[in-house]
Amino acid sequence: MNERQMLLKKIGTYRFTITDIDMFLDTHPGDTEMLALRNRYAQELRPLIEQFESRFGPLTKRENQTNTWSWVKDPWPWDMEA
């Protein structure tokens, strides 16, 4: 697994965990421990996204701050070797 794939996996793991905690907090809004955990994971996620974007370009369309669509310049999933 190359560095790009490892970063994507870490980012995906953090995003999944944050989404899962968000759903838990929808039904348990007073759980301050889970809110603190969610916020900690969100703080840990940001540097991973910044690291990915500095090396490989925008992660999503939302993070694209330029006038070019640079993610289409990357290899598409079917262009990658198995």
Note the topology.
Elements: H1 3-27, H2 32-56
Helix pairs in contact: 1-2
Q: How would you describe this structure in keywords?
A:
2 helices, 82 residues, mainly alpha, elongated
Summarize the structure.
The mean pLDDT is 86.
Structure, described:
- By secondary structure, the protein is mainly alpha-helical.
- It contains two helices and no strands.
- The protein has one domain.
- 61% of the residues lie in helices and 0% in strands.
- The radius of gyration is 16 Å and the shape is elongated.
- The model has no long low-confidence stretch (mean pLDDT 86).
Main sheet: strands, sense, barrel: none
N- and C-termini, Cα separation: 11 Å
Query: How do the helices and strands follow one another from N- to C-terminus?
Result: HH
Outline the low-pLDDT stretches: none
